[in-house]
Design goal:
Helices cover 47% and strands 7% of the residues. With 162 residues, it is mainly alpha-helical. It is extended.
C-alpha cells in the first residue's frame, strides 16, 4: 500500500505498528463489516489528486487521476480480494492470461506462437483475429459483474461487500 493518507488521515505505518490486542480489534471490525456489509461512511470518502505524466503537463489527458482512500478500507478490500481471487482463478480458463499471477502478454504470445507453429507443421490453416478492448474494464456494468459473481457461486456476503 502507498503511504499517502486518505481523508481519514490514518497512516499505513501506524497500522503496521499495531500490537496484537489492537490487531484483534481490527479483525473483529473487519469480520463485522464482512458479515453485515456495512462499511463506515468515512472509509468510503476519497481525495482525488491529479498527477502529471510529464514534466510540462498542461492538458487533462497529460495527467493521471489518483484516488487517496482510507488505508483501513484498502486493507479490508485486500482481504476480500484474496478470498474471491482464489475462487475466480480456478474458474477462469487456461486461455485466460490477463489478471492472473505469473501470466501476461508474453506468455500469451508464446502460447500463440507455439500453437501457430504446430498448425504450420501439420499444414493446417491458421486464422487470427485480434480485438483491442480499450478501456474494457471501465465498460463493465455493475449488473453484469454481479450476475457473473452469482454464477461463479461467490458467497453472498462477498458479493454484497463488493
Amino acid at each position: 500500500m502507498h503511504k499517502a493518507t486518505g481523508p481519514d488521515e490514518i497512516n499505513i505505518e501506524a497500522i503496521k505498528l499495531l500490537d496484537e490486542e489492537n490487531i484483534e480489534i481490527l479483525v473483529r471490525l473487519f469480520n463485522r463489516i464482512y458479515d453485515t456489509g456495512y462499511i463506515p461512511r468515512e472509509w468510503l470518502q476519497s481525495s482525488f489528486v491529479m498527477i502529471p505524466k510529464t514534466a510540462n503537463a498542461t492538458k487533462c489527458s497529460e495527467h493521471r487521476l489518483i484516488s487517496l482512500m482510507s488505508h483501513l478500507l484498502k486493507l479490508f478490500l485486500r482481504i476480500l480480494h484474496s478470498r474471491t481471487y482464489k475462487i475466480l482463478e480456478e474458474l477462469s480458463g487456461s486461455t485466460q492470461f490477463g489478471f492472473k499471477g505469473g501470466l501476461g502478454t508474453r506468455k500469451a504470445i508464446l502460447c500463440l506462437n507455439t500453437f501457430m507453429q504446430n498448425c504450420l507443421d501439420q499444414r493446417k490453416d491458421v486464422y487470427l483475429t485480434f480485438i483491442d478492448y480499450e478501456k474494457a474494464i471501465d465498460n463493465v456494468t455493475y449488473d453484469i459483474m454481479m450476475e457473473l459473481l452469482h454464477r461463479a457461486n461467490i458467497d453472498q456476503k462477498e458479493i454484497r461487500n463488493i
